[in-house]
Specification:
The protein is of the alpha/beta class. The chain has one domain: 2-enoyl-CoA Hydratase, Chain A, domain 1. The chain has 10 helices and 11 strands. The strands form 3 sheets. A 6-stranded mixed β-sheet has the order 1-2-3-6-8-11, sandwiched between helices. The chain has a 3-stranded mixed β-sheet with strand order 7-9-10. A two-stranded antiparallel ribbon has the order 4-5. β1 (about 1-5) and β2 form a beta hairpin. α1 (about 25-40) runs parallel beside α2 and α4 (about 135-145) crosses α5 (about 145-155). The protein is globular. The chain starts with a strand and ends in a 10-residue tail after the last helix.
Length: about 250
């Protein structure tokens, strides 16, 4: 991971460096969360969250499904995920390529998203025989509305940046080469605002989001733990690794 700070403009950039797909694990998310907490204690007023390589984040690598889920039987991935919502800094996500599964959850933990027509968004959990996670129970309908969220979650369909822009999933649609520059420009525009007022307004606009996400994460985790033991989940992961359609049996 790489963190750079523009002291003049009060903007920080956090770049995840696990390209090309930037699968996350416990250590990666912990490092990002730690950086956000540290930045919040300084003069930074807005953060750009971005990734190297082809895709913003393809979520968790289910071919090694236990990677990063727990550490010494104690810390769970979602113990870290909630920290993205608890921290006080506005985040602009620069979403190149795909934001899939947990990667979509990570993008939606940000306040704003910049993408291109070539960007792709998907909540593919049901296609894996799995329950969605990373607080998408709360964040996805908050951003796109209940009905659009239901359709995305039920079908596992991937949509491009133009469709995402149409339903509000991305806030700024630019050419592929302009995603990160536009995200930085937007963060700089935010950072011109008075820092105390900015944090106060953000806390007001997010309202009960943190507690809602905390409750959602507990439920999502329980459902994921239950479905992880099913034949359908094993089939979904195998089908994905073999690049074929899954053959689910309902058990």
């Amino acid at each position: 991971m790489y963190v750079s700070i523009d002291d003049t403009r009060h903007v920080a950039t956090i770049e995840i460096r696990r390209g090309p797909n930037n699968f996350f694990d416990l250590a990666t998310l912990s490092e990002v969360a730690d950086s956000l907490d540290k930045l919040a204690g300084g003069d930074v007023r807005a953060v750009v969250l971005c990734s190297e390589g082809k895709n913003f984040c393809a979520g968790m690598n289910f071919t090694t499904p236990d990677e990063g889920v727990a550490s010494s039987g104690a810390t769970h991935l979602y113990d870290i995920a909630i920290r993205f919502f608890e921290q006080p800094l506005p985040i602009v996500a620069a979403v190149q390529g795909a934001a899939i599964g947990g990667g979509l959850g990570l993008a939606l933990a940000a306040d704003l998203r910049v993408a291109s027509r070539e960007s792709r968004f998907g909540a593919n959990f049901a296609r894996l025989g799995f329950h969605h996670g990373f607080g998408l129970t709360v964040t996805l309908p908050l951003v796109v509305g209940h009905q659009a969220a239901v359709e995305l979650l039920y079908t596992g369909r991937r949509i491009d940046g133009e469709a995402a822009s149409h339903i509000g999933l991305c806030d700024h649609l630019v050419d592929a080469g302009q995603i990160r520059p536009r995200a930085i420009e937007l963060a700089e525009e935010i950072a011109v605002s008075a820092p105390l007022a900015l944090r106060s307004i953000r806390a007001t606009m997010r309202g009960p989001l943190v507690e809602s996400v905390r409750a959602a994460l507990a439920h999502e985790r329980a459902e994921q733990d239950r479905l992880r033991r099913t034949d359908d989940f094993r089939e979904g992961v195998q089908a994905m690794s073999e690049r074929r359609g899954p053959r689910f049996v309902g058990r």
